[in-house]
Write a structure and sequence with these properties.
Layout lengths: L8 E6 L8 E6 L2 E5 L8 H4 L15 E3 L5 H4 L2 H6 L6 E3 L1 H28 L13 H8 L2 E3 L6 E2 L5 E6 L7 E7 L2 E5 L22 E5 L12 H14 L4 E4 L5 H14 L8 E3 L2 H10 L10 H8 L3 E2 L3 H9 L5 E4 L9 H8 L6 E4 L8 H6 L4 E4 L2 E4 L3 E4 L9 H8 L8 E5 L3 H15 L3 E2 L6 E3 L1
Parallel strand pairs: 3-4, 4-5, 5-6, 10-11, 11-20, 12-15, 12-16, 13-14, 13-15, 16-19, 20-21
Antiparallel strand pairs: 1-2, 1-22, 2-3, 7-8, 8-9, 9-10, 17-18
Helix pairs in contact: 4-5, 4-8, 6-7, 7-9
């Protein structure tokens, strides 16, 4: 039997009961390790939680372990550092590189939003202040420690960390932490099996406790070939003189789409329609793709060719010219759920015209414009204006970088002996509960959907 001092507790400070803001705290022997440190996104009630101080002092956290760089897993790091965290941040080398792009961009957006709020007078607080800024992001980046895959690394406090590939996006990892003889496995965000560009999630054979995501815990992805489905939409849109606007996640999805578009071009499927990548952050992330060939399936020549299929648009004036052009075309622009960024200007321009298509390529969280449009909204509010949506709206969920329910179960099935308990996190309530039922029925495992801020003894 463990002594009280050896007891480990797990507390979700985010990512429990919701699909965003992942932060999972392990405590033992008076030491603290935080797995992921994400921003809340989506519904206003969730976003407001970013401003609520953590229930523990950031300075009391000994280390952070990052599964991957997406904002809902990494985006609170600058705030954590700003508020006193001084420990190391362990992540794969590619995650460190991608995080640098994402966190700098997030700091810039936070500063710009505060500036706009002050200029236009719509801030609740005067003056409006950013949650954090670029300087805070840079301080967080300095704390990263690049961690190899498949090699046990000692953490402050005595825990041992092993990273394995999760697929999903460049650098994404599953996290195995062994502490006081207890093995705790975090899935992070699992990728797809047989994905065109990313590696399969690597199996893990043993775990005492599992913390697993459930983004798509309630559904299966369409099995249609994503290249063919994408080609059909582009062909019918350009045939009627329209433009395809693809709100895209700058890291992961944008690069996957380039690959599928390259395949279509190579097959002569989409004619002469120009393709634009209108996102400085996506362009920077694309540059990293060929720098980390070990983190995906593409050979160097394929990576180069896929990345060259689009015209890169960096400057604002060039983006405006793309919007103004009457030529049928394909525009990839962030953000993936149409919550901000240049894609909003394209939706304002192309959304009201029935010839055009707004094409989403994966999960759309509650409270986002993307969710509203996918669910058939006749209009959406952008920059204070109500914009009619008469364009065709489509979604290709098979392009998602997230494992579906069967793929999650496939990964879990690699664990030879049932864990003592499986915690289901990072999902909307109905998705998490559906996955709980599937795991219990198919694997017979003891599952719990943890509540936010409730400590669970391991």
């Amino acid at each position: 039997m463990k002594k009280d001092l050896d007891v480990i507790t797990l507390t979700s400070l985010g990512g429990a009961g919701t699909v965003t803001g992942s932060k999972h705290l392990l405590e033992a022997d008076g030491r603290r390790i935080l797995v992921d440190c994400g921003l809340f996104q989506g519904l206003k009630t969730l976003r407001e939680q970013n401003w609520t101080p953590l229930p523990i002092k950031p300075s009391s956290i000994d280390a952070v372990v990052l599964t991957h760089a997406h904002l809902d897993h990494s985006g609170y790091l600058p705030k954590l550092v700003k508020d006193g965290f001084k420990g190391p941040i362990f992540a794969s080398a590619a995650t460190r590189d991608v995080s640098e792009i994402i966190l700098r961009d997030s700091g810039h957006i936070q500063e710009k939003d505060a500036e706009d709020a002050n200029r236009h007078g719509y801030a609740k607080h005067k003056p409006a202040l950013p949650l954090y800024g670029v300087h805070d992001a840079e301080r967080a980046i300095e704390r990263f420690s690049s961690t190899p895959f498949h090699k046990a690394v000692r953490l402050p406090g005595g825990a041992s960390l092993t990273l394995r590939r999760a697929g999903h996006i460049l650098g994404a990892a599953t996290v195995e932490l062994t502490w006081n003889g207890t093995r705790i496995l975090f899935s992070g965000d699992l990728g797809r099996y047989g994905d065109a560009t990313m590696l399969d999630p690597e199996p893990v054979s043993e775990a005492d406790y599992v913390v697993v995501e459930s983004t798509y815990g309630d559904r299966r992805h369409d099995q249609q070939d994503p290249t063919a489905a994408l080609g059909e939409i582009i062909e019918r849109t350009t045939a009627r003189g329209g433009t395809v606007v693809i709100p895209t996640f700058a890291v992961g999805r944008a690069q996957s789409l380039l690959y599928h578009l390259w395949r279509l071009k190579a097959a002569g499927r989409i004619g002469l329609a120009p393709i634009y990548m209108d996102s400085p952050m996506a362009i920077s992330a694309t540059d990293l793709l060929c720098a980390h060939l070990e983190d995906h399936r593409m050979a160097a020549d394929v990576c180069d060719a896929a990345c060259a299929v689009a015209t890169y648009v960096r400057e604002v004036e060039a983006s405006k010219k793309v919007t103004a052009s009457p030529v049928p075309k394909v525009i990839l622009a962030a953000s993936g759920m149409a919550t901000g960024g240049r894609v909003l200007h394209h939706i304002k321009a192309f959304g009201p015209d029935r010839r055009n298509t707004i094409l989403f390529s994966g999960f759309q969280a509650a409270g986002t414009r993307g969710r509203s449009m996918v669910e058939g909204a006749a209009e959406v509010k952008i920059h204070g204006q109500w914009i009619p949506i008469r364009a065709e709206v489509a979604n290709l969920p098979m392009l998602s970088a997230h494992a579906d329910s069967e793929e999650i179960l496939r990964w879990l099935s690699g664990i030879k002996q049932p864990p003592k308990k499986t915690f289901i996190v990072h999902g909307e309530p109905h998705a998490s509960d559906a996955l709980r039922v599937r795991i219990q029925d198919r694997l017979g495992w003891d599952c719990v959907i943890p509540q936010m801020l409730v400590a669970y003894q391991l």
